[in-house]
């Protein structure tokens, strides 16, 4: 596939590895922010190829993983209602709430649909005027413009049986929280390329300045990640801390202005609870009051109960790069992708699932 | 949900959502190009959750390799078997 295969070349990867070995003189910890990057790093065994001085910490950028349990509980309650057709991206179906998952509700006869796009959910609402169609709107800055467009079209076209259960999160506040920790372990970040495709790099300039941390906007293929690591190490070794852009083919400095405009028209910034990280100020998006008619929690009078996360799951620490999935006693035994205890074992972008799927093989492949 | 994939724009309709057909290595999907107003047939776009979120800049795409060449790094010896 064009713009994919050429960034997976083994020969070029070996040249990058050699360059990384040459640039590094002491230990550094670099966090890749996005779950898609974690997935590629583990799948291609990139960590094992790096010199021992370089550790990669896996960050909080997996939307499936950070959606809090109480949102899942609201989703389960809505999906169980007889008048509701509940629409979600496929990877949310297996995420455990306090009592079961969406898949279980579906198996019990709930009308739960997997959609590719929020527009598919809106189309279902138009086709089934007697049903209440609810869309589970989760994700980072990358999916928010898509969900904003669905709400915007629903309002213009007066689609009255469509609503969104919104639990959107924003990347920069999570990075700030990780950087503010007293025992901060992160020396540099590989920022999530596609989030910056939408948002541009302004907020990251501020983080780099305030916390003295280099941030490299990075893509998702092996050569992207290796170049991002090299760019980050070079700054660390030279004592610099600025934002640079490895992923120039998809990220301009100003981001996508049309997408951002609609995002801000539909959503406002609110405090959000993150699974594993707790509540972070100004770290999420909710529908603005002008879109209240499309807010599923208001339409169905749902209260936001607090739900406890499974006690033995350490995914909160995994999402902050403080623990590895393999440090968890449940990993691979009581917790597997077929029977996940925590959300980081559900999504392909979750660190626990990526380790479970690829780690034995990639560790064997190391020369 | 969060994986962005590059695809080639095959056609674009003139509706308000700029729905288009985008090919991902032969797999064709219906995608909204409303956030990629400058995209035309034959362009490559990054698609996320059914929306094109940006165009791929072909000149910038080659810079990964230019960066590597500028490092002057040659292919290391194959590791010993
Ligand atoms: S292995 Fe399972 S229980 Fe342990 S941290 Fe990962 S998701 Fe949680």
Automatic annotation (TrEMBL), chain A:
Signal peptide: none annotated. The keyword Metal-binding applies. Keywords: Iron, Metal-binding. It comes from the Bacteria. Belongs to the HypD family. PANTHER family: HYDROGENASE MATURATION FACTOR HYPD, HYDROGENASE PROTEIN ASSEMBLY PROTEIN HYPD. This is Hydrogenase formation protein HypD. It comes from Nannocystis bainbridge. The lineage of its organism: Bacteria, Pseudomonadati, Myxococcota, Polyangia, Nannocystales.
């Amino acid at each position: 596939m064009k713009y994919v295969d050429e960034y997976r070349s083994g020969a070029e990867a070996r040249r990058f590895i050699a360059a990384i070995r040459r640039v590094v003189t002491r230990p550094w910890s670099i966090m890749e922010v996005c779950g898609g990057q974690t997935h590629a790093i583990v799948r291609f065994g990139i960590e094992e190829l790096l010199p021992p001085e370089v550790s990669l910490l896996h960050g909080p950028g997996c939307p499936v993983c950070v959606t809090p349990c109480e949102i899942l509980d609201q989703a389960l309650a809505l999906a169980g209602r007889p008048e509701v057709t509940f629409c979600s991206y496929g990877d949310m179906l297996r995420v455990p709430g306090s009592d079961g998952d969406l898949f279980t509700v579906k198996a019990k006869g709930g009308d739960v649909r997997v959609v590719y796009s929020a527009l598919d959910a809106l189309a279902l609402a138009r086709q089934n005027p007697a049903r209440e169609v609810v869309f589970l709107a989760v994700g980072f800055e990358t999916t928010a413009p898509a969900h904003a467009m669905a709400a915007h079209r629903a309002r213009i076209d007066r689609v009255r049986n469509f609503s969104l259960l919104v639990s959107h999160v924003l990347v920069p506040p999570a990075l700030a929280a990780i950087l503010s920790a007293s025992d901060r372990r992160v020396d540099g970040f590989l920022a999530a390329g596609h989030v910056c495709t939408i948002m541009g790099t302004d907020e990251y300039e501020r983080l780099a300045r305030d916390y003295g941390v280099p941030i490299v906007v990075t893509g998702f293929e092996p050569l992207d990640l290796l170049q991002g690591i090299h760019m980050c190490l070079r700054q660390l070794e030279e004592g610099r801390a600025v934002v640079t852009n490895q992923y120039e083919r998809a990220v301009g400095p100003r981001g996508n202005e049309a997408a951002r405009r609609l995002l801000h028209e539909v959503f406002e910034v609110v405090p959000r609870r993150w699974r594993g990280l707790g509540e972070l100020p100004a770290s999420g998006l909710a529908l603005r009051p002008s879109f209240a008619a499309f807010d599923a929690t208001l339409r169905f009078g749902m209260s936001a109960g607090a739900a406890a996360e499974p006690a033995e799951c350490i995914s909160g620490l995994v999402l902050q790069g403080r623990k590895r999935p393999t440090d968890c006693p449940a990993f691979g035994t009581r917790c597997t992708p077929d029977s996940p205890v925590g959300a980081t074992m559900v999504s392909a972008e979750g660190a626990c699932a990526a380790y479970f799927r690829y780690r034995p093989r990639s560790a064997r492949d190391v020369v | 949900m969060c994986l962005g994939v590059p695809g080639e724009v095959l056609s674009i309709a003139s509706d308000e959502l700029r729905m288009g057909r985008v090919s991902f290595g032969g797999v064709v999907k219906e995608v909204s190009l409303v956030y990629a107003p400058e995209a035309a047939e034959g362009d490559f776009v990054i698609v996320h959750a059914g929306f094109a979120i940006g165009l791929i800049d072909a000149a910038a795409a080659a810079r990964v390799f230019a960066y590597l060449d500028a490092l002057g790094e040659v292919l290391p010896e194959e590791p010993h078997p």
